[in-house]
């Protein structure tokens, strides 16, 4: 559980959320090439937040706008949304 994405892995992951890409696969013995449209910008925001704050999936998905303080660059994680049952705050990066 100590593994961290490398910079190149993070760039590839984030590019899937924003860039269209060419995909080639085999179907019924024929090679098919398709252009997959750009992904979901909201997913990109969740991935950036997860990478920069180390928040858990459940904590991220339960966030509400009132939990985010842009003026002080911090996110409040409510006690009932944490694994340990204790409230905590995490800092936000400029991203």
Span between termini: 24 Å
Q: How would you write the strand order of the largest sheet? A: 3-4-5
Q: What is the global morphology?
A: elongated
> For the residues shown, what is the average pLDDT?
87
Major pleated sheet: 3 strands, antiparallel
Structural class: alpha+beta
Radius of gyration, CA atoms, in whole angstroms: 18 Å
The tally of helices reads: 3
- Give the strand tally: 5
Describe the structure in your own words.
There is one protein chain. The protein has helices at residues 7-18, 41-53, 57-61, and strands spanning 21-27, 30-36, 68-69, 74-77, 88-91. It is α+β, with helices and mostly antiparallel strands. The model has no long low-confidence stretch (mean pLDDT 87). It has a three-stranded antiparallel beta sheet, with no helix packed on it. A two-stranded antiparallel ribbon has the order 1-2. The longest helix is centred in the middle third of the chain and has 13 residues, at 41-53. Helix 1 (7-18) packs antiparallel against helix 2. The protein is built from three helices and five strands.
Q: How would you briefly describe this protein structure?
A:
The protein is built from 3 helices and 5 strands. By secondary structure, the chain is of the alpha+beta class.
Secondary structure: elements and pairs:
Layout: H1 7-18, E1 21-27, E2 30-36, H2 41-53, H3 57-61, E3 68-69, E4 74-77, E5 88-91
Antiparallel strand pairs: 1-2, 3-4, 4-5
Give structural attributes.
alpha+beta, two-stranded antiparallel sheet, 95 residues, 3 helices, 5 strands, 25% strand, three-stranded antiparallel beta sheet
């Amino acid at each position: 559980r100590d593994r961290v994405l490398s910079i190149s892995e993070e760039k590839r992951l984030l590019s899937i959320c924003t860039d269209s890409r060419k995909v080639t696969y085999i179907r019924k013995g024929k090679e098919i090439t398709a252009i997959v449209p750009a992904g979901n910008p909201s997913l990109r925001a969740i991935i950036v937040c997860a990478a920069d704050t180390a928040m858990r999936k459940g904590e991220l998905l339960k966030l509400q706008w009132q939990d985010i303080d842009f003026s002080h660059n911090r996110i409040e994680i409510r006690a009932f949304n944490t694994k340990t049952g204790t409230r905590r705050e995490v800092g936000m990066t400029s991203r």
